[in-house]
Amino acid sequence: MSGNQENRIVRGPADWRGSVQVTRSFLPGLDEYVALLEGVWETGQLTNHGPLVTRLESRLRDYLDVDHLFAICNGTVALQIAIEALEFAGDVITTPFSYVATTSSLVWQHCRPVFADIDRESLAIDPAAIESVITPETTGILATHVYGFPCDIDGIGRVAEKYGLKIIYDAAHCFGARFRGRGMMRYGDAAISSFHATKIFHCAEGGAVTVSDSELAERVAYMRNFGHKGREDFHGIGINGKLSELHAAMGLAVFEHVEDIIASRRAVVEDYWQRLDGVEGLRFLKPGPEVDWNYAYLPVVLPDERAVESVRDRLAEASIYPRRYFYPPLHRLPGLEPGPSMPVAEEMATRVMCLPVFPGIEEMVVEKVASEIARAAAR
Ligand SMILES: Cc1ncc(COP(=O)(O)O)c(C=O)c1O
User: Fold this and answer.
1) 171 lines ligand 1 (CB under 6 A)
2) Is pLDDT of 248 > 80?
3) What percent of the chain has pLDDT over 70?
4) CATH 3.90.1150.10 domain extents, the chain
């Protein structure tokens, strides 16, 4: 997150073609990817924890400032492995305001998601709301650091300690972000990341589990590899959570650019902030003094759902698609048993929109999006 941000932003042609989504996957140079694949052709090793996965894990461990990091085939399986490794079972307290995988992975693991409402300012799960739904059936807490901003880590930690609960942080949005000078994935008993193609750092598909405790690390290691203990023995039951060498090659190629990607996103985000500075009726989430943010998303809170829909519809006419992220709130997912309402999450799900941000976004797209946001806020 250093360097001359202004020079790094790539501006596209004035007449952009095709549609503009909320993000555009970063592609490294094809030659960079192919150079890494040549090694795969030499060794013939396509998967099973080969040299590229090993190299990627070591780079990420250093960069993310964690003790143990396991590359996984995607962020959802990473969540499932973390839930299994920490022996969450029965009721798990979680946020209604996150991507669907945060809830679905719990349900897939036969846990019952118990929702606790979010804080109106940070949009992250509220520790007081967590405490209010703890029962003897509660086995853990699964919280999301939304948009790369930390949850109330101290507050959640205090509640967890008081009731002897473990914490998993869904840190899918946190690549490279730091809190109090430490990598954000260091916090909690386990954290997971997603390296999906839409993320700041990606492997096309991929993810990771990070932990500090060595015994827990051993469990994660065997669980992502079918439970294997050597060729003919098993530690226990596992799953296939391995990342392939081809995905690791993509990750290594993208990793070389990650600082530039973050710097470029920062320039775009600051451009939006500047254009919309002082516009009444809008609220942007901004990093606090202890946070070194990664500019992973640009959420804006609009006055009401009508404003969100008006921006969505007007931008769709120009083939620009910001995203209502996160919508719907997760306690309303079909297939879940009906539970109490979550007033803050319900309201915020209708008012928050994530604006298009990616390296190389055309200036006229930023201009158009900003002017539609300002117009909707003024109505
Ligand atoms: C908050 C959050 N959790 C979990 C996931 C799941 O990650 P993946 O798409 O790699 O399975 C995502 C990603 O899309 C996410 O945004």
Assistant:
1) no
2) yes
3) 96
4) 5-25+258-378
Q: How many residues does the chain have?
A: 379
Distance from Cα 4 to the centre of ligand 1, integer Å: 30
Of the pLDDT bands very low, low, confident and very high (cuts 50, 70, 90), residue 130 is very high
Per-residue DSSP letter, 11: P
User: Is the shortest distance between the CB of 178 and ligand 1 below 6 Å?
Assistant: no
CA distance 27 to 137: 46
Mutate to test the pocket of ligand 1, among 196, 199, 200, 224 (most ligand atoms within 8 A of CB): 196
Token pair listed for 331: 């306690």
Peptide bond preceding 359 in cis form (omega within 30 of 0): no
Judge whether 171 and 153 are in contact, CB under 8 Å.
no
CATH 3.40.640.10 location in the chain: 30-255
Cα–ligand 1 centroid distance for 181 (angstroms): 25
Give the CATH number of domain 30-255: 3.40.640.10
Residue 102's SS3 state is helix
* 49-106 residue pLDDT tens: 999 999 999 999 999 999 999 999 999 999 999 999 999 999 999 999 999 999 999 9
Give me ligand 1 centre to Cα 132, in Å: 27
Instruction: Please check whether residue 284 is in contact with residue 273, taking contact to mean a CB–CB distance below 8 angstroms.
Output: yes
pLDDT value at position 17? 57
Atom of ligand 1 nearest to the CA of 77: 11
Ligand 1 closest atom vs CA 206: 10
Q: CATH homologous superfamily of domain 5-25+258-378?
A: Aspartate Aminotransferase, domain 1 (3.90.1150.10)
For residues 269 and 202, what is the distance between their CA atoms, to the nearest angstrom? 20
Does residue 74 line the site of ligand 1, with CB under 6 A?
yes
